[in-house]
Amino acid sequence: MARTATTPRTERKYKDYLFILEKYLIPFFGNFDVAKIDDEEVADFEAWRLAEMGKNAKQMTKKHHAMAYNRVMTLAKARGYIPLNKMIVPLDITGERGKSRPAFTVEELEQMYAYMPKWQIDVWHKQSTEIRYLCCAYVKFLVNTGVRHSTESMPLRWKHLQWHFIGSKRYLRIWVSGKTGARYLIAKNAVLEVLEELMRWHKLPFMDLNELIQAKLDRRVFTLQSGEMPHLMENIFRNLMKKSGLMKDAGGQNRTLYSLRHTYATLALADGIDIHTLAKQMGTSVVMIERHYSKLTAMMSAEKLA
Fold this sequence. Notes:
52% helix; hpI Integrase, Chain A; 3 strands; 7% strand; three-stranded antiparallel sheet
């Protein structure tokens, strides 16, 4: 860009892009692998930018930010850092992303869980049954932990599960490492049954989940029975959404695997979990929680408020 800035106009454009890079894009995206920037990171950037600017950016400002971002991503593709066939998640230039993130209600979760057994066997090939079973376990795990799909969940190993005791009560503690660093989180009790069933499905040589946790098994949790990592889990989940009739939320937005994390957050807030605790549990900031989730809780907590 500096080499092509040969006229006052192009020089001004170069300076504008440089300012955007140094002021906004590098401070937020600087530690990210460009090939792994997804919808959630982009949405978090937009919330972070709002907090930094103290106001919603004007449409022209958003367009300039998006143009600078696109130049970086195009260069990354040209240099082989991003696969040529990978779709780039764009930055918002219209302001429409102020909508609430798509999530599931409790009733919709129950509908999805009820449909899962039928969906698992409604296949042409045995391998499809296997990946669908794993997808169902994966969905329930994400809903009940709030971990990030892929970056935090896929590297998870059985040895990362621990018991956490408060007096005589025992809780499942999980170590995860993601874009904000490593942390421990407390899983909902419903995860115990999911993991126990997954242990039996993998035919691991342990009597129960407790014995498996004590063994500190160094093996990934979410693999096929062969030990291979599943591919295109997003596509499998999309099929589940289409077949179950749950593809779109009430606002017409398509649900993705990231919707499960959003569901965890909204239900936790509705249950009275304070935003500071939730931010720590989910590995995000209070600003992000307030920006993306807290607006939903008033109607979800209607019974408490009325």
